[in-house]
Design brief:
Elements lengths: L8 E4 L12 E8 L2 E6 L3 E5 L13 E4 L3 E10 L9 E2 L5 E2 L3 H9 L8 E10 L3 H7 L3 E3 L1
Parallel strand pairs: 5-9
Antiparallel strand pairs: 1-2, 1-10, 2-3, 3-9, 4-5, 6-8, 6-9, 7-8
């Protein structure tokens, strides 16, 4: 499927009812010869950044359930390259990753909000060709 690229959104179909991906919308952040990576964008984790031991001095800030892979790490997508260096540009407006100390500072002292910065626990990952096959079989639709 040639139209898969970083920055597109896709959502689950009825084919994924009963799975971890039921009723999810995903932002694709990487799609290359190594596979695909995305984050579920519509599933709050119902925990806050300050609930995590290493960030317990931070302001309350919502966390998202990014997916079932690597749930031991915090990932960031942001729109504040003016405050956060080192992010990888996904689209004109969105960046993946960056200096985490600057992310925390942007939240705590610069007043950045959850429209500008989203924090995820976990991500979604697919091997090469796997996401295309799932779209072809009707598990996902591009939006």
């Amino acid at each position: 499927m040639n139209n898969l690229k970083a920055g597109i959104y896709f959502k689950s179909t009825g084919a994924l009812i009963g799975s971890v991906f039921e009723n999810t919308c995903i932002l694709l952040v990487k799609h290359n010869t190594a596979g695909s990576i995305g984050f579920i964008t519509n599933r709050p984790l119902y925990k806050s950044l300050h609930d995590l031991i290493e960030f317990n001095q931070s302001k309350p800030f919502p966390l998202m359930d990014g997916g079932p892979v690597d749930r031991e790490h915090l990932f960031v997508i942001h729109q504040r390259p003016d405050l956060i260096s080192g992010g990888e540009q996904i689209t004109n407006d969105f960046y993946l990753g960056g200096n985490m100390e600057q992310v925390i500072e942007a939240i705590n002292t610069e007043g950045a909000n959850n429209q500008e910065i989203q924090l995820f626990i976990g991500y979604c990952g697919w091997d090469v060709g796997e996401l295309e096959a799932e779209i072809e079989e009707g598990s996902w639709v591009l939006i």
